[in-house]
Amino acid sequence: MWLEECDIPHVLAVPKSQMVMTMEFFGQAHAHTLVSDLSDGVWTRLSCGDDAHGPREYDWAAAPIRHWRREGWDHWLLARPSLANPTDIAYYICFCPAGTSLEELARVAGSRWMVEECFQTAKNETGLDHYQVRGYTAWYRHITLSMAALAFLAILREEAKKGIHIPAATHPSYP
Question: Which of 33, 100, 144, 162 is the most exposed place for a label (fewest CB within 10 A)?
């Protein structure tokens, strides 16, 4: 709700049991129920981005949700079944400017993979997951330091690929 109040478009992954407001007056349904009622003709094969093996293509469908909408904004329930197991469906609640295409929603949903990979790398290389939450300020400082360290390492890797010499005084292994 905060994102919507601040007019921040988003695509948020939700469980299949998520209750959503339907287009019916005061109607509600679980995400999986709403998607199971969609006809076969609404599914579209789209790429949500590339990985090491090329385009990541899936079938996508979007169902309008929320009977009452603010002018200029749309609410959707986006669904993406697994190609290996079509009964395994990922669900997303979307809040976006009116007229946002299914292709754009799929692309944004697919970007989650890059964010998750970035956080996994930060956990492995900069100790992102090595903290105890005792307060927001401490958590915020730790996560900021870990992500800054990850950005520094990424720059070092790119410079090493290009053959750029890094002075010893700025290298992380410098005593």
Answer: 162
pTM equals 0.72
Beta bridge partners of 19: 30
Contact 3, 95 (CB under 8 A): yes
Distance of alpha carbon 55 from alpha carbon 134, whole angstroms: 42
Written as six digits, the tokens of 120 are 């996994």
Q: Which amino acid is located at 165 in the chain?
A: H
The answer to whether the beta carbons of residues 80 and 103 sit under 8 Å apart is no
Measured from the Cβ of residue 127, the count of other Cβ atoms closer than 10 Å reads: 13
Max Cα–Cα distance, the chain, nearest Å = 67
| ∠ CA 170-173-174, rounded to 5° | 55
Task: Output the CA torsion 92→93→96→102 (10° steps).
Answer: 40
pLDDT in tens, 10-65: 999 999 999 998 888 788 999 999 998 888 889 999 988 777 677 888 999 999 99
Q: What is the DSSP letter of 50?
A: E
* CA dist., res. 80 & res. 155, Å (int): 34
Task: Report how far residue 34's alpha carbon sits from residue 17's, in angstroms, rounded to the nearest whole number.
Answer: 11
- 77 burial (CB, 10 Å; 0-12 / 13-18 / 19+) is buried
